[in-house]
Design brief:
- Helix content is about 65%, strand content about 5%.
- The protein is mainly alpha-helical.
- The protein has one domain.
- A two-stranded antiparallel sheet has the order 1-2.
- Helix 1 runs parallel beside helix 4 and helix 2 packs antiparallel against helix 4.
Length: about 170
């Protein structure tokens, strides 16, 4: 079972992540290497302000959209939720707990996503500190593998909760 993560903590986490991106972006050059080929060589560039705006937009906007839409939609009385054993989990005596669990689950997913985006940003910052700019692909792939493993673990726990009697 996932521990219940509360919305204020998630908002604080996203705000801290945005501050991290903002502050570490000061280390970036005026023209940022922002895209890299398979060998880690830079092959796409943008102005620092554009990069920072895009990164902050992704970091705040994507989780806010996902969490916001899910948060509002699951609580609607006539929400069409597709859950395993939905008759059991959406019975009146369990519905509030199920909604709370669904909301906590999307907050955990958002936390994983924000964490990965911060990690990818940090790798871009480090890549721009060498000349010519070069992304440490092994670190990126390692981070991606950790993110996907954490996502799989989250999914197993999240969906496993909805077995009858869980």
């Amino acid at each position: 079972m996932l521990p219940l993560l509360r919305l204020p903590w998630f908002v604080l986490f996203v705000a801290c992540a945005a501050a991290f991106v903002w502050l570490t972006s000061m280390r970036l050059p005026a023209t940022v290497a922002s895209h890299f080929d398979g060998s880690g060589a830079a092959n796409g560039f943008m102005a620092r302000g554009v990069y920072v705006g895009l990164m902050l937009g992704l970091l705040v906007g994507l989780p806010a959209l996902m969490v916001g839409l899910t948060w509002l939609s699951v609580a609607r009385p006539k929400a069409r939720l597709n859950l395993p054993n939905e008759d059991y989990w959406l019975a009146p005596e369990r519905r509030a707990g199920t909604i709370a669990y669904l909301r906590a689950g999307i907050l955990w997913f958002g936390t994983l996503l924000v964490s990965f985006l911060c990690y990818a940003h940090w790798l871009v910052v480090l890549a721009n500190e060498v000349h010519p700019a070069r992304l440490a692909n092994a670190w990126f792939i390692g981070g991606l593998v950790v993110f996907l493993a954490a996502l799989l673990a989250w999914l197993i726990v999240f969906l496993g909760h909805f077995r009858r009697g869980a």
